[in-house]
Amino acid sequence: MKILFLSPGWPKGRLWGELGFKFPTLSLASLAAVTPQGWDVSFHDDAIRATDFDNDADLIALTAMTAQATRAYQLADAFRSRGKTVVMGGFHASNLPDEALQHVDSVVVGEGELAWPQLLADFQAGRLQQLYRADGLIDTALIPPARREIFKGSGHLFTNTIQTTRGCPFDCEFCSVTAFYGRKYRKRPVEQVLVELQELRKANSFVFFVDDNIVADRRYSLPLFDGMKGMGLKWLSHAPIDFAEDQELLKAAGESGCVGMFVGFESLNQDSLAAMGKVTNKAASYKAYAQQFRDNGIGILGSFVMGCDGDTPAVFEQTLRFCEDARLEAAIFPILTPYPGTKVRQRLEAEGRIISNNWQDYDMEHVTFQPRGMTVQELQDGYDQACRSFYSWGSIYRRLFKLHRSVQVFGPMNIGFRSAIRRKCTDA
Question: Is 336 helix (H, G, I), strand (E, B) or coil?
Answer without folding.
Answer: coil
